[in-house]
Amino acid sequence: MTHSPVIVALDYPTAEGALDLARRLDPADCRLKVGKELYTRAGPALLAQLHTLGFDVFLDLKFHDIPNTVSRAVSVAADLGVWMVNVHASCGRRAMTQAADTLAQFSAPPELIAVTVLTSFSQAEFEEVHHGERLEERVSMLAALTQDCGLDGVVCSPHEVPRLRAERGLNFGLVTPGVRPVGSDAGDQTRIMTPEQAIAAGSSYLVIGRPITQASDPLQALHQINLTLGAD
Ligand SMILES: O=C(O)c1cc(=O)[nH]c(=O)n1[C@@H]1O[C@H](COP(=O)(O)O)[C@@H](O)[C@H]1O
């Protein structure tokens, strides 16, 4: 069990790249996230290897489908022993409720969280796909629906955290990508904050990829983040 809120996003094209970093990391310092790129390549075998190394693993496949498909997919994720799994909140009430009910049958189910609005979206980009809506209103509405369906939390940007923490209470998980230590490149993320700002705002977990994986010294980059958070 780590005291760090950091979840390192292992966005690598091969299992070797991901395992190379994972073997140098200590499960006492972070959790790991396996997303679409790595999972498409390496699948359940890699999850098993990361579990053997002692890590809690967030399987980030953002399931977005009909209720039957979503609930069966999260059930398989639970079978694989992951610590956290996610769906898109825009799957709607039936899919999320069925997924939560399915996981409730496991003795040690993964945390089930739902993506609200991707952290790469700016308000202008958001309006291209959701005409006339305010991004933060949609995040707020989807978080309320997610909680009502019995899930453990949402993925949102740190920008929405103060509002969601006030609206959804202290026990609702707020998992935030879009985290950039001072001086690191934003890349394709738009709604960003530093690790300290995100935690001060009320984030439960920080998903951080490139600022660690692309650093010249990834271990030092993680160490520095944990240090600034007092989680070293
Ligand atoms: O569900 C996610 O993890 C996720 C949701 C979201 O809204 N934004 C987002 O960036 N992510 C993931 O979080 C990670 C962020 O990585 P970096 O931008 O490299 O720190 C990536 O693996 C994304 O797939």
UniProtKB/TrEMBL annotation:
Domain Orotidine 5'-phosphate decarboxylase, chain residue ranges per copy: 5-225
UniProt xrefs under Pfam families: OMPdecase (PF00215)
Q: Which UniProt keywords apply?
A: Decarboxylase, Lyase, Pyrimidine biosynthesis
Which Gene3D superfamilies has this protein been placed in?
Answer: Aldolase class I
Top-level taxon in the UniProt lineage? Bacteria
User: Hey, which pathway is this one from?
Assistant: Pyrimidine metabolism; UMP biosynthesis via de novo pathway; UMP from orotate: step 2/2
Stated family = Belongs to the OMP decarboxylase family. Type 1 subfamily.
Put simply, this protein is called Orotidine 5'-phosphate decarboxylase
Q: Which organism is it from?
A: Litorivicinus lipolyticus
Gene that produces this protein: pyrF
